[in-house]
Each structure stands twice: as structure tokens, then as C-alpha cells.
Design brief:
The structure is a single chain. By secondary structure, this protein is of the alpha+beta class. It folds into two domains: 183 residues, Penicillin-binding protein 2a (Domain 2); 318 residues, Beta-lactamase (3-Layer(aba) Sandwich). It is built from 21 helices and 20 strands. The termini are far apart.
Length: 594
Amino acid sequence: MGRKYFVARIIIASVILLLILISLIIRMYHVQIDRHDELFEKAKNTYTSTVKKEGKRGEIYDINGNLLVGNKPCVNIAADPGEIGDSIKCRELAEYLHKMLDVDYDNIYRRLSTKVNEANGKDIRYVIIKKEVELELGERIRHDVKLKKYKGVIFENKTKRFYPKNKLVANILGFINIDGNKVVPEGGIERTVNTNVTPTASVSEIERTRKGIRLSGEEEKLKAVQDGNNVYLTISEPIQMIVEDELDKLMLQFNPDAAYAVMADPYTGNIIAMAQRPSFDPNDRTKMDPKAWRNRITEDSFEPGSIMKSTIVSAALDMGFVNPDTKIDCEGGHWLFSGRILSEAAGHGHNIISVTDIIRVSSNIGTAKIAVMMGKKNVYDTIRKFGFGQKSGIPLKPESVGLMLKPEKWDGLTISRYPIGQGFTVTPLQMVRAYCALANGGKLVDLRLIDRQKNPATGEEIKMEILQPLGSIFKNPNTRKKIVDMMKLVTKKGGTAEKAGVKGYEVAGKTGTAQKVIDGVYSNTQHVASFVGFVPADKPAFVMLVTVDEPKLKSYYGGVVAAPAFNHIAKKALRIMNIPTEYEVPEEEEEDDL
């Protein structure tokens, strides 16, 4: 009895052990084979971490190395819902983050308390709370989290784009947005040079202990990264500041829809300053008006009015149709041509005057008659040779080319209207480029905005090429002197832009006052006032256009609205550039800075 009982117990125990062994084998199979991938991934997530390392986005400077766009440290604040704790802890943490970061409480609480992704059943181990938190605030929150013993809060040291000069150069620079982990440049130079300023990034798998501490030697696995190239613009920050300050004054004085100015080196095409109002602060885009963000200088075109006349008259001089003393009958101020009356501006009337005086007093009829002498083909070819209807060479996009009809689509009036800046549109950049050609003797240079790039690691500089045009618009080497001598008179007593003159220098230029087309009809109340010129006239340091769109005061002419702004900017810029005066100015005539 005892022996049988003992054997039975042995058999039962053996069966139980066998069953346990079989279940362990089944369990091991399930773990090692069936759930291998799942458990491996879980272990990997527990004892390894993915570390993304990236360099800094390249910075942007003016031509002299003044910082225009930089990077500054910030903190991304995130959380691991699985580490936070129960609902009480979630609520407490959500309330704190809501108060400190000004984020929506309900949204944050829902994200902190949702620990499993319903779509795939996986644990949620990372939710972003707020990106690009100022470093000082981030450090304060980090301190509080440690003090209050909150769990699961993640701090990621990052850098963010900042614009130290606020509105200065904003429409040229553009800005960037962050979409997830992707940098999205929004217009301006930020978009143009995005490939060059984008840093390299690396992703590495780093092993760590159960407590999250990296194992010895794991730092060596982090791959090297490279910062993006730094970019140097042709812009001069001190002169840009002068230009923008003057535009602010124009906006206050005339309450226009917009105002803009462009200054360029006529020999290289370098943009020295370029600004518009309204503008915006790229550091605070929450208050940004989309109208202010858009770059009017590259995207908008306008009927130029009388600033167009210098190009047509210069071509007529060059081709020998007229000379400075040629007399033209300006019909007393009203001329019937092709069934329509062409009148002089502001009711002025001129009879027989010289070509020189046609430019000085800005005669519509005189310029139109010169164009008729030239003929349709020569007028159109001249407009094209001066760069109208074409891109300027500047790297900003989008860029308008304006609207202009080919000669075969002209009606009988067109040949008398295009030369006085009516019936077609140009961009501010095209006009500056055309006057660069007048200033430098006929070379149509491409406009430039990027001077060079620099590799921050090696210090190697890549200079952007200056493309010099082949040949000249002018066949006669004396043409430049003839047209410039006429344009000098525009800024002297009796000219339309006496207020553009700068004491101590010869200034050459031209005024323009264009009626805006509203619903297909030229308006008698809405105008675009402009002045474009260069100084010193015989060896220019720069060409500059100032344009004011719809000045609201009674005096809306280019000589009244835009010419004084040219004067104020030019005299300060000449001083910064150390351009010596051409003649002495009596003390009583010296101008105070405005």
C-alpha cells in the first residue's frame, strides 16, 4: 500500500513537472518566436533612445557683418504621459503648465492623461507641450518641476530664429515657420538661401540604463553635424536704417497706402538699401497684417508716369533724332493726337521749348512728340533695352515683370503714352535698374542682394559673381553726359524736383506723378508720386527711387512728396559713405539734418 502510494505520488509529480515544462516551452516559444518583434521593440525603447543632433541654421548679416538674422537658445517642453502618474497628478501638472506657458488647460490635460494610442494600441511616450519657449522661462519651469517633483516632463534644448533688428529689413529677410520638425521658410532671403543655411542632422541609437543614464562610451556614437553657411547681403545696415526712418516719416506726413525706397550701386547692381511701409516684425507674427508681409517692391508693378521720360529721351539723343537744343512745339499745353487730347500736368502750358527743357519741366507733349519721331519699333526696343518687361536679377521670389504690350498690339495712342509712363506697368526694381544704366553710361547691370557666403567651420568664403553686361545701351559715348546734364537741371531752381537737391553735390534725377487706374479709368484723386535719381551726378555713389502710393494730402506730386525724402536720405548716406562734396556750401546755406 505504502509503495503503491509512493509510486503514484512520483507519477503525479512527474506529470505536473512535465506539464510545467511544456507550458514553459510554449511560453518561451510565444515570447521568442510569436512576440519576438514586439518585445524586442519594447526592450529597445526601454534601454535605448534615439538622439537627433543637428547643427545651427546659418546666420544672415549685412555686407559689413552686422547680424540681421541669428539663432538663440530656447527650450521645447514635452511630456511622457506614462511617467506622470494618476489623474490627480495629470491635473496638477496641466494646471501648472497652463499657467506658466499660456496653453489651453483642457487640451493639455487630455494629452497628458491619454496614455495609449487608440488607433494602434501603443503606449504614448511623447507629447509636445510648447515649442521655442524662452530660455529664461524654460529654466524657471525646469526648476519648479524638480522642486514640485513632477514626473514625465521633458526639456529639449533647442535654438530658434530671431531677428535682432525687428522691423528692419523684414520684407527682404522673410521668416521661417516650424511644421512639426520641419523648417518652412516663408518668403524673402530665408527662402532664397534655405538650402545653403540649412545645417546637417544626424540620428543615433544610444543605449542607456533602466534609469535612463547613457552607458559609458555611448557619446562616441553621436554622429558629427555641420552648421549651415552664413550669408552676407549687399545691404548696408546704417543706410537701411536711414531709409526706413524716412519712410516712417513719409507715412506719418502723407498717410499713403504704401511707401517704398530702393538704393543701388549703379556699377555693381548691389542693393544698398531696400524698404517698404507698411512692414512687420518677424519676431511677433501674431499681429502681422498679410498686406505688410507681402514684398511690394518685387511683387507689385505700377504705371511709372514721368520718371519714364529720361529713358526715351536718352535713346532719342543716342540715335540722333534730337539733340539737347532741338526745339519742340508743346502746343501751349494741349495736343490732339490720334483723336485724343494729351495735356500737360497741373494745367501747365509750354509752347516751343528745347529738349533740355522738356526734361527740366517734365513736358508730356514734348516727350510724346520725340517718341513719335523715333517710331514704334525704336520706342519699344528702348523700353526693353532698359530692362522693362524683364526680371531684375534679384534673387527674391516671386518677382513681377510688369505688364506691357508688344508693338503689334498697340493702338494709335500707345506710342504717345508709353514714353510718358502711361498704359503699361513697371516694378520699382526695374526702374532702379534702368536708372543704374543711365548713371553708369549705358550698362544694364543685374541687381544683386547676396554678396557672399561663409562656411562657419572652415572660414571659406564664396563670393557671389558680379555679372557685367556685354556692350552698352548707348552707341554714342556722349549720350550719358547729354541726358545727365538735363537731369541735373530737374533738381535745380526751375526744375520739378528742386527739393531733391543736396547742398554740395550735383544731383541728377526725374520726378513722376502717375494717375492710378481705378475700374479701368484714370483717377483724378489717386496717384503714385515718385522721384528717382543719382548722386554725385557725374560719378554716382548710388541710384535711389522713392515712391509713395496714394499720398492723402492735396499736394501729391513727386517733386513735393518723394523728392524731399530723397534729399533727406541722400545727404545722410553720402556722409556715411564718405563721399566728398563737389563744391563748397556757404555756411548760411548749410542744411540741418531732418
